[in-house]
Amino acid sequence: TMGPAPGNNTAMAVAYGLQNSPVPFSVEAVNNNLPSFTALTPDVTVMEKQMVRFTLEASDPDGDPLSFSIINPPRGAVLDSVSSTQREFKWIPDYDQAGTYKIIFIVYDNKGGADRDTSTIVVENKNRLPVITAFQPEKAEFSVKPDSTIHFSMTAEDPDNDQLTYFWEVDGQRVAEGFQYSYTADSLGHYEVIGYVADPYDTTFHQWILNVKTRVELESLTASSKIANGLPVVAVDWITRVEVDNIGFNIYRSRFKTGDYEKINSQIVRSHKSGQYEYVDRTVTAGLRYYYKIEDLDLNGNKTLHGPVRADIPVPNEFNISQNYPNPFNPVTTIHFTLPASGHVQLVIFNILGQKIRTLIDENRKAGFYSLQWNGRDDSGNPAPSGVYYYAIKAGKFQAIKRMILAR
Questions:
Q1: How far, in Å, are 296, 337, 374 from residue 400 at the CA level?
Q2: Is residue 15 part of a domain?
Q3: Within this chain, do residues 220 and 309 fall inside the same structural domain, yes or no?
Q4: Of 24, 59, 105, 249, which is least packed with CB atoms within 10 Å of its CB?
């Protein structure tokens, strides 16, 4: 055994029968100061797939070159050189490497000196979400008719091989368990159907938007005011895109958008293949606004309202009286006139001698469009003879006279 002192050391080997015994041995001993880690390696807790990274640093009092190693490094760990006295430890634990690792680091000099340090790395399990591999229906949003049944299904896999459970919600309400679900669309509207897949730690999902549409879909609905035969009317027009089991339509009217609506058609507007419809409302008053809705009716008695749409009835901008129609006439003719302002109106019929035969109106009227009929009789109810007659109107400063013929 060599002594602790550096320098030249001599030892003698003595053995009986050995030629030239004793045999001297000479060894030059050098002084070696051990390398050491200058900072303790950290203890670390990470999740799977989270990088562990720290720097090892050592020094040698003699300035000897250093080398580093790891005893039983975990799979995937590396020790990269940073400088002659530093190494960087890097490791990204995989999904199957959860656990506790006690890692031993050793630093050596070139004379056999060494130091060691230990780091404890705790890798916690990171749950991976289930993966939905197939689902039905394939469309995320679709439309169906009322009373249709839609079948939903999902299949999924779990990367961690966890046990999976399935459940379903409709508009936030849990409705079923299992990987399949059937929904019957019995009401109109929009519905959100969500299928969930859960492992013991987390949940993923797939969403569908379901539009349960009326049996009648409108492409357009309008209401427009116009003058027909001297009087204001409103034409309610609509075009349908889809009609299923539709009998026809009713028309409702209100003076106010959110008011009470009254049905104004006496007979249903029957469904027909063209899908184009018009209803003319002849009971409107100048200067007023009206709102209209239409109602479809199917074979099962289901009803759906559409609208409202609005129509404004104009007020005439001038006085006017039209030629009677028909002319000549027998037994009845019609006279139209317009009033741009409210006032007293008098409409009188005279014969060719200037004698008054009949007073059709002699009263105050509001601004608007008007229609009066003369049945060819005088104020006493007696039939007037055939011949030429004149009708004269006076409304404020407006006066006019027109000629007509009664031909019996």
A1: 48, 11, 17
A2: no
A3: yes
A4: 24
**Beta pairing partners, 240:** 218
Q: Which residues sit opposite 311 in a β-bridge?
A: 290
Tens of pLDDT, residue by residue, the chain (408 residues): 554 555 666 767 666 666 666 777 676 666 789 999 998 789 999 999 999 999 999 999 999 999 999 998 999 999 999 999 999 999 999 999 999 999 999 999 999 999 999 999 999 999 999 999 999 999 999 888 777 899 999 999 999 999 999 999 999 999 999 999 999 987 778 899 999 999 999 999 999 999 887 778 899 999 999 999 889 999 999 999 888 889 999 999 999 999 999 999 999 999 999 999 999 999 999 999 999 999 999 888 888 899 999 999 999 999 999 999 999 999 999 999 999 999 999 999 999 999 999 999 999 999 999 999 999 999 999 999 999 999 999 998 999 999 999 998
28 located within any domain:
no
User: Is position 18 within any domain?
Assistant: no
Question: Whole-angstrom Cα distance, residue 307 to residue 290?
Answer: 12
Domain C-terminal end among 294, 313, 332:
313
Q: Domain count of the chain?
A: 4
Q: Which domain holds residue 345?
A: 320-406
Distance CA 135, CA 193 (A): 13
Q: What is the DSSP letter of 33?
A: P
Which of 74, 91, 124 is a domain's end point? 124
308 and 226, same structural domain? Answer: yes
